[in-house]
Automatic annotation (TrEMBL):
The keyword Isomerase applies. This is Phosphosugar isomerase transcriptional regulator. GO terms for biological process: carbohydrate derivative metabolic process. InterPro entries: Homeodomain-like_sf, HTH_RpiR, RpiR-like, RpiR-like_SIS, SIS_dom, SIS_dom_sf, WH-like_DNA-bd_sf. CDD domains: SIS_RpiR. Residues 3-79 form the HTH rpiR-type domain. Keywords: DNA-binding, Isomerase, Transcription, Transcription regulation. GO terms for molecular function: carbohydrate derivative binding; DNA binding; DNA-binding transcription factor activity; isomerase activity. It comes from Candidatus Enterococcus testudinis. Residues 124-264 form the SIS domain.
Length: 284
């Protein structure tokens, strides 16, 4: 499946230069104008050199402006459908505000789903299934996603580990081997602590899965498999909050696929857990 220009721009936006971000903003805001204009007209409008616009299209994976413009024409409906769902106004009532938050979350999930590939999902699950141990790493808001994943994967037949403390995570990373798989979660992909842990894991030979919102980030470059979680930027909540929903969904998908692959052993694990929990509930 071809990734749309809109998603390509959103995925790489934070890695663009200021001039490239200016071009990206104009494309998203004026898709019809861009798809029916020459490179010279667009460059003059934006006050950039033709070569700058040309290199921007190359950065998105096109051979040049002609191929980019053709893709724009084919994807015009997708680009024109852009809506900043969470552009909450002072005059909005509480229900409207809540609905806009839900709309933004649904857009985040749809965009992230459209970036998934069968190849990446198969590769990631094969790495997890073939490892002796699986560790989840994340700091700050990403630690919440890592903890949720750990809580979920405890039900699987795979040995999983996670600590909420950064220093313990750092020690765990140093003890990884080529038999292990490490899953790193970071919205920006630029968290110094997470990058340090990933570098240590890489040097140890561990298999690395990265979940981030920025494809060109330092953390993404360390991953054997990288999943991109798309999110909208809003005024009163950080992108990381929106991306968390898509990151949780990516982890859910990997968990479900893994459990179906190991259906018999997975059922045994779940049965043991349910029996233990049911005893506690009965005592209460």
């Amino acid at each position: 499946m071809t990734v749309s220009i809109r998603l390509q721009i959103k995925t790489h936006y934070k890695d663009f230069s200021l001039k490239e971000q200016k071009i990206a903003d104009y494309i998203l805001e004026n898709p019809s104008t861009v798809s029916h204009s020459s490179i010279s007209d667009l460059s003059n409008t934006l006050g950039v050199a033709d070569s700058t616009f040309f290199q921007f299209t190359k950065k998105l994976g096109y051979n040049g402006f002609k191929e980019f413009k053709m893709a724009m024409l084919m994807q015009e409906n997708d680009l024109s459908a852009i809506s900043f769902h969470e552009n909450i106004q002072q005059t909005d009532n509480e229900l409207t505000m809540a609905q806009k938050v839900f709309d933004s979350n649904m857009t985040t999930l749809t965009d992230t789903r459209n970036l998934l590939t069968e190849e990446n999902l198969k590769h990631a699950v094969t790495m997890i299934d073939g490892s002796k141990r699986v560790y989840f790493f994340g700091v700050g808001g990403s630690e919440i996603v890592a903890t949720d994943a750990y809580h979920k994967f405890l039900r699987s037949p795979i040995a999983v580990y996670h600590s909420t403390d950064f220093h313990i995570q750092l020690m765990e990373a140093s003890l990884l081997t080529s038999d292990d798989c490490a899953i790193f979660i970071s919205h920006t992909g630029k968290s110094r602590e997470t990058i340090e842990m990933a570098q240590i894991a890489k040097e140890a030979g561990a298999k690395i899965i990265v979940i981030t919102s920025h494809a060109g980030s330092p953390l993404a470059k360390l991953g054997d498999v990288v999943f991109i979680s798309i999110s909208e930027e809003t005024e009163f909540r950080s992108e990381a909050l929106a991306s968390r929903i898509s990151q949780l969904s990516i982890m859910d998908a990997l968990y479900v696929i893994l459990m179906f692959i190991n259906r018999e052993d997975a059922q045994k694990s779940i049965k043991k857990i349910r029996q233990s929990i049911s005893k506690i509930k009965e005592n209460n």
